[in-house]
Specification:
By secondary structure, the protein is of the alpha/beta class. It has a single domain, classed as Dihydropteroate synthase-like (TIM Barrel). Strand 5, helix 5 and strand 6 form a beta-alpha-beta unit.
Length: 277
Amino acid sequence: MGVLNVTPDSFSDGGIYFERKKAVSRGLDMAAAGADIIDIGGESTRPGSDPVSPEAEKERVIPVISELRRQTEVLISIDTTKSQVAQAALDAGADMINDISAFRFDPEMAGLAAQKKVPVVLMHMKGVPKTMQKAPTYKDVVNEVEGFLAERVEFATAHGIERNKIIIDPGIGFGKRLEDNLELLYNLDCLKKLNRPILVGASRKSFIGTILDLPPKERLEGTIASAVLCIARGAHILRVHDVIAVRRAALVADAIINRKPSFSPPCEEVRKDTHAA
């Protein structure tokens, strides 16, 4: 999933693709680079960001979605918490809804998704973007996120959304401390018990910047490292800014992890002997 922020203030590439032609060109480039989905958002959700009106959000994203739909068959996701924006985006040719609030901010969103029978992404977030990074705390972040997502999946199905159309996202960087992000990524496979595809958006996030002491545009290697680990832990979709580089790394990681069973003797005893030595 390629990230396309049609905003002036997103944390990594805000303003770069704010103009419609540049946004469309970027979307086509990502499709050509092998993105399976282009996730288009018109409201920054970086820590400390302010919300924008549905009208402003639609003005930013609808022309881009319409033009991309005319020029490519790649799946288009609308990244919004507002049913008005999602409705307009779906009418313009979007294929799915990515809601960081998991249907908590707009009571009409679940019904819209059910009516349109489109795939949805339900993400965990503690608080709201404006304040979510102000001292978030957890007793057990993995269990709390898993429990939240389980409840949201049940909420969605109770509102008529088919279970096989639901994707879950642990919400890396959304109301999480450094240790929370690392714990969630390390234990990502715990979310497998929900039996839904797992999406992870770790690309260029602040936890990578904290570890490497680098700004967003210099976090590619950290993004690739986290992407490979996420694949090993069971992620199905990676939401990224750098489509070509991460896709190449993902293909290699996937080939190794999902290789055909070998008839060679297992190497476990050799490994044990090596560690003992």
